[in-house]
Amino acid sequence: MSGPAQPGWQRAGLADALGALGALVSPAAGPGAPGGEQADPVSDDTTVLAESLRQPERFGRIYDLHFPGIYGYIASRLGPDDADDLTAETFIDAFRRRASFDPARGSVRPWLFGIATRLVAQHRRAEARRYRALARTPVEPDPGGHDERVAARVSAQARREPLLRALAELSDDDRDVLLLIALGGLSYEEVATALSIPPGTVASRLSRARRKVRGVLDTPQTGQTGRPNGHGASHASH
Amino acid sequence: MPAIDDLEVIRELLAGKPPSQDVNDYVKSRLTAVIAADSDPGAVRSPRREPRSHRTVAEAARRRRRLAWRSAAGVAALAAAAVAVVAVVAPVARRDDVDTTAYVVKRVSHALSAAEPGEIAQMTVTTRGAAIYGGKTTTTTAEEWSNGNQWRLVTYSPDGRPLYDEGFGTSSLYTLVSYQARTWARQHGLGFGPSGVSVLPGPPGCQLTPAAASPLLFAYGLPGTRSASSSLPSTVARDLRTAVSCGALVDAGRQRVDGTEAIELKSRPGSPVSKTVWVSQSTYLPVRVVVRLSFGKLPGREQTADFTWLPQTAQNLAKLTVPIPAGFRHVPVSSAVLPILQQLPALPTMPTGWPNKVTCLGPDGPTCTK
């Protein structure tokens, strides 16, 4: 169900509009798209959420749209053991609080990521354990990449442990911003909505976090956007 | 050296596998139950969550379990998006069982998947009320071990003497020792079909077969000489996982089983094979299984299997090997098998409609039919 645009929808920049159009043409999300939930127009889930107030079962559509992205985000931060329960709690919490959702503040997606992030925040120790476990995990070679890309990746993988340590040592607030962008694929504005903070604070936290991470990677950055698949690149490279 | 995108590196570093259908079903079932409760004004609402930022991970895990037990009270009006697990279980289950069952099923299935390759299932199987040995109705016991494709079964007489010892080992050899005849035999091609091909494959999405659900899981006689590989003891973990995942079992509460806090999962009423599985509340691995089988008016049979899950130590792995006692005579398999089979009663004849009617019941009864 895709209705006409309604007042109150603030996003839908050019990139999002193109993404939505592409999704309509090709329902499957591209492999590089963080989470598969961008396969539907942004406006759709806002309307569906409103409908779910009268027809609760309509919330199932919200789940279908956003489950892969939310699960992937939580699983990347906490690992698969906790991700299923926390993903369930994210959607249950969202369902119970759906009446308080304000479409004027943004779309459903950052709202869900905000709930997920708050739940993740209650498992900081599990997140730290995951980083330590990943640091001990041997890296599997990537057989199919382009030479330069593989070389860059190998170089980065050599710094795996310090990078994970750097992630663990970030402040909780900085890490949330960094990972909402890196893992959730959210834009500045969406992160601001998700965390209920001003966009300027998002920018400063992201800048601080990336500076520390880049310090570990020890490689000059040349205009990287943080959104290698191109979608929403302008948001994260500010 | 090209520049490295730090955000891409982070994403690649932390990204895991995409969620499995099992995870999707589990998460969806929890949400669906809440939605259904909201849709049903008469349903008892799940309690709202309390802030838990101060709780430890262990406390949170325990609380998650408790919440899973308590949540999702009303499920009569299941939403259209209900998943198969809920749909299969819900019609007969009490309302507040649904979410609990889905949660337990998930945990048991994961625990069995994890245990199957790594741990040795040791079972003490007691069979009661059935003519098993010497044509008499009596109680006998057997010790079984299984790990992957390896298995071993020692059957004892009512007075506790070993009757025969058979197994399938690492060298793909079936070995049988008859303590009565003081003989032993070995042969390739018996003992196990490594693929565990079901004799009666179930319909897609519901692979529970009569063989998997029947007491053949704890076979008596000489299972290694049969062709029904799916019913061999070595598939214990797989069969249990199938039964659990198929939705044939419903949470029936908590009990203490030999000092272990356990969750009871029961097959639903009317099932031709009644199976009760108790799983540990801490490990979600089965600690006891009771199977009752009745063929119409024919005498029923009840088997109880007590499980111990053993680590793969050299000592425990040795239990999978059939020892050849000194002084026993080597004979062809047929010579070892026949005297034993002659003492076993024939299995009851399957009634009409069996095994076409399987125990995986749908909303309106046995929908998983061939």
Q: Layout of SSEs?
A:
The complex is a heterodimer of chains A (238) and B (370).
Chain A: H1 14-25, H2 42-51, H3 59-78, H4 80-96, H5 108-121, H6 124-136, H7 147-158, H8 160-169, H9 172-182, H10 188-195, H11 199-217, H12 233-236
Helix pairs in contact in A: 2-3, 3-4, 3-5, 4-5, 5-10, 6-8, 8-11, 9-11, 10-11
Chain B: H1 6-14, H2 21-39, H3 57-70, H4 84-89, H5 97-118, E1 120-133, E2 136-147, E3 150-156, E4 162-168, E5 173-178, E6 183-188, H6 210-213, H7 236-245, E7 249-257, E8 260-267, E9 273-280, E10 286-293, E11 301-310, H8 314-317, E12 329-330, H9 333-342
Parallel strand pairs in B: 6-12
Antiparallel strand pairs in B: 1-2, 1-11, 2-3, 3-4, 4-5, 5-6, 7-8, 8-9, 9-10, 10-11
Task: Tell me about this structure.
The complex is a heterodimer of chains A (238) and B (370). Chain A has 238 residues and is mostly helical. Chain A has 2 domains: 86 residues, Rna Polymerase Sigma Factor, Chain: A; 82 residues, Winged helix-like DNA-binding domain superfamily/Winged helix DNA-binding domain (Arc Repressor Mutant, subunit A, Orthogonal Bundle), CATH 1.10.10.10. Chain A is built from 12 helices and no strands. The two termini of chain A are 34 Å apart. Chain B is α+β, with helices and mostly antiparallel strands and 370 residues long. The longest helix of chain B has 22 residues. Chain B starts with 5 loop residues before the first helix and ends in a 28-residue tail after the last helix. At the A-B interface, helix 3, helix 4, helix 6, helix 7 and helix 8 of A face helix 1, helix 2 and helix 3 of B.
Main sheet of chain A? none
Percentage of residues in DSSP E strands of chain B: 25-35%
Roughly how many Å is the radius of gyration of chain B? Answer: 23 Å
**Uncertain segments of chain B:** 41-98, 131-135, 193-218, 226-235, 346-370
The name of the CATH architecture of the largest domain in chain B is: Clam
What are the salient characteristics of this protein?
heterodimer; A: about 240 residues; mainly alpha; Arc Repressor Mutant, subunit A; about 65% helix; globular; B: about 375 residues; alpha+beta; outer membrane lipoprotein receptor (LolB), chain A; 2 domains; 12-stranded mixed beta sheet; disordered C terminus
